[in-house]
Amino acid sequence: MYTSLRLRTLSSRLRKARNAELLKQVIEKDAKRDVENTELKSRIGELEASLAILEQGVTEVNGQPQNDKEVIAELIYRSQT
Predict the structure, then answer these.
(1) How far is residue 62 from each of residues 14, 35, 37, 71, measured CA to CA in Å?
(2) Where does the source fall among the domains of life (predicted)?
(3) Cα separation of 81 and 67, whole Å?
(4) What is the chain's pLDDT, residue by residue, as a tens digit (81 residues)?
(5) E-assigned strands of 10-78?
(6) Would you say the pTM of this structure is higher than 0.70?
(7) What per-residue confidence (pLDDT) applies to 7?
(8) At what angle do helices 4-55 and 69-80 cross, to 10 degrees?
(9) Pick from 53, 77, 79, 80: nearest CA to 67
């Protein structure tokens, strides 16, 4: 039969094991979030660069200068896909 002390020790060990598992899950989730954030920051940089070009009002399509709202809209759409 287990004594009260043995039960408390066992309970403490189980809590510590559970806490270690939860901490591991949190660390893994944080690492995944950091990777996603890095990817999104890169994408934001690309979109900001595209926007700066578009804000100049002149774009180039197939080597031809364009200042057409439909062309600009198409370029924005392409840059988001």
Answers:
(1) 66, 35, 34, 11
(2) Eukaryota
(3) 22
(4) 568 888 889 899 999 999 999 999 999 999 999 999 999 999 999 888 888 877 776 555 566 666 666 666 776 777 776
(5) 59-61, 64-66
(6) no
(7) 84
(8) 160
(9) 53
Range of the domain at 26: 4-80
Nearest alpha carbon to residue 71 among 52, 58, 80, 81 = 58
Amino acid code (one letter) for 21: E
Spatial contact of 72 and 54, defined as CB atoms under 8 Å apart: yes
- Count of domains observed in the chain: 1
Work out the burial of residue 63: count CB atoms within 10 Å of its CB; fewer than 13 is exposed, 13-18 middle, 19 or more buried.
exposed
| Residue showing tokens 């949190």 | 26
Tokens for 14? 């189980």
